[in-house]
Task: structure prediction
Amino acid sequence: MFKKILIANRGEIAVRIIRACREMSISPVAVYSDADRTALHVRLADQAVHLGAAPSSESYLCGDKIIAAAKQTSAEAIHPGYGFLSENAAFAEAVEQAGLVLIGPPAAAMKMMGSKTSARRAALAAGAPVVPGTTAPIASVEEAINIAEEIGYPVMLKAASGGGGKGMRRVGCRDDISSAFTMAQSEALASFKDAAVYLEKYIERPRHIEIQLMADQFGNTVYLGERECSLQRRHQKVVEECPSPVVDEELRHRMGEAAVKIARAAGYVNAGTIEFLVDSQKNFYFLEMNTRLQVEHPVTEMVTGRDLVHEQIRVAAGQPLSFSQTDVWLRGAAIECRIYAEDPEHNFMPSPGLIKKIKTPAGPGVRDDSGVYEGWEVPVFYDSLLAKFCVWAETRALAVKRLARALDEYEMSGIRTTLPFFRAIVRNEDFQQGNFDTGFIDRFLQTQNHNPAASAADDDAMAAQQELADLAAIAAVLHSKTTAQQHRDATPQATESRWKTYGRMAQRRF
Ligand code: MV4
Result:
């Protein structure tokens, strides 16, 4: 087993991996940027190596600096977490070249799944159900029209190098395909430096359900149930759960077997996730594979009782998985809320700053994977995920009750967070019934009296802000000031008071 592991990440996931290291008597090494000198992951590690300036391009994305830090500290392995370099095949190869172990899949599997068209080919070759469409990029508008006629409208144009919703265009009829094709191509080029787009049949109001996999180097590939990830806002997950309210034993078995076949076809080792779209008739279709540990892995851990990070480390060290398929069963239900430093009253604008106070819920069945502490200033440079708050209970209905109770205990002040938004979601009857699809959050926000005109203006502003990533510090401040004013001008009073009601309800009780 490894004696020392370098964690090439920050925030809550770095803390999560440090905890696994401690439990396995492995010494954890942190890395950090200028903005993270006092971050929680740095405080908790045995050693910490400074990488560079605050922007990720100067720090957490610098593969060579990270490999040098591992060598310098005599770490034998690198855990990349999620995001940053976690799905970068060139980094995986460089780690191996340096004589170190990457705690993740082989570079070849990362490459195969990184291209959506080659992932679709792999899934088809494995005999898994795949969304009908092409397995190669589309060369011309004529070709797009011919294929769309064949599979039937509506269709979806997607970036071959994409994922996560960028460069994606729904096309309802033949008249719209030419301009959609041009726009999808230029968006794909701008976002992924690759203009290639392909075509899929559009699945109406799908649910997003994914299968968690673990594979070792001895050919054991095991599925650990599914996660329901349909609750997303702008292609970002906000609530995830295990199991899915719509998946029964039989469907779980079929989806699990399909996922294992795809992983085997890819020569997959370590933790991975197969994403499926599930339609209203419960047909499931392969969408893409994520070749990393995922943000929402804790709900799977709570329901299977398995520690995925322990298993990742074991497998990377050349040991077999500690369990087989027959050892995996699901008990109870777990739900996760992603607590972001964002203001739900103002279209989820980033809200970095000093955390004045934190009170974390406790009691039966709760887990808080946090990367922050009271008195720390949340930097503007990175994803604003502060903590993943999870509950477990014997049934989904009890987990929902427990979530409502625990969210009311949670206090975080000084910055705006998504906590009030979750307090509202958990009181929604359709959520309580498990009755939702990928369009639920948008519809929910509309019923909360959200002002569409104002939010469109915010969206444009947000896109502009992304391009100015290096000026984020200045942009975010100017931005929130101006849009806050816009909102005061444009938003009906009812919206704000609704959110505040949930906040006050929580505060009165404690
Ligand atoms: C789709 C789809 C419908 N049909 N593909 C969005 C993110 C990307 N990973 C895939 N996405 C979708 N692909 C076909 N053929 C609908 C979505 C989609 C979606 C998927 C999962 C979770 C939330 C979503 C929200 C809007 C659209």
Observations:
- The pocket of MV4 is lined by residues 131, 156, 163-165, 200-203, 206, 208, 232, 235, 277, 287, 438 (CB under 6 Å).
- The chain is about 40% helix and 25% strand.
- Residues 4-103 form a domain with the Rossmann fold fold (CATH 3.40.50.20).
- The chain has three domains: 4-103, 132-202+449-510, 207-446.
